[in-house]
Amino acid sequence: MQQPIIAGNNVEEATQRRLGLVTVNGGCSGTLLNRYWVLTARHCVSTNSHPDGPLMQAQQVRITAAWTSFTAHGTDYNEFAVNRPTPSRDIVMVYLGLGDLAWDGENFPYLTDATDPQHDDPATWAGARLKDTDTVTQYGRGLTSYASGVVGTPSETRAQGSGTYHSASFTPSSISETRYVLQANGIGQVGAGGDSGGPTMVARRGRGGGLAIAGVQSTCTATGYIPVATGVATPPNYPDWSYATGESACQYVSTEPFVKEIGAALQRSPDPKNPASAAIRALPDIVDYVLQ
Known about the structure:
With 292 residues, the chain is mostly beta strands.
């Protein structure tokens, strides 16, 4: 499922590292919530590349990042309750266990502003909803240009993707508890193929500021595909992102309903270096939340 930020801004490796931006199975985006858990789109790790498909064996999930030479493999999943037994939301957590991306003893790129220790019980959390007055930053790695020409002729130029992270700013719309939309912004930037699973970052409205993850990219809406020359066989899987000529918007799965489940999963993370502090250190900002 190739879905990057078209015409977006390059994200430096230091920033990718600080935000925990990773690549999932070579073609999707994802975010490290802490050293052991990756948040991404469910279709990125399903056997048929569909949100409601069976999950592949966790060990088949490969996690890489521009800021390290390490490669991690999944060992388990956190399948959200809403997706059991019938998947309906394009979101999942991949557990890396001890095969994680830690390196050189440096500080791992936890998201900023870890939650207050006296409130480290996720049962007290409630997700806060995005507003249409928010400005969010979307991150993803994927397409950087669209296709042009005609399939089967010398003019055929497929959509290109650099495989490096890009970002762009958007105003969310069509916001509900479960989803939101990011339309192409005023300078033509829009999420794209390869950005699936990439995080939407938003400034927190309380509890010390910092950034929070509002959701992950799921699908995008293409505006067209380059035509096929007369007499040329239709390419396999045509139309797909390699032949897209544009996109108008992308759809996202909100983390709002999942903050308790995400927090509970993170508290199960092992921390061989410092087990006593594992629970507190494992609590990032999932989305701007309030204590009930």
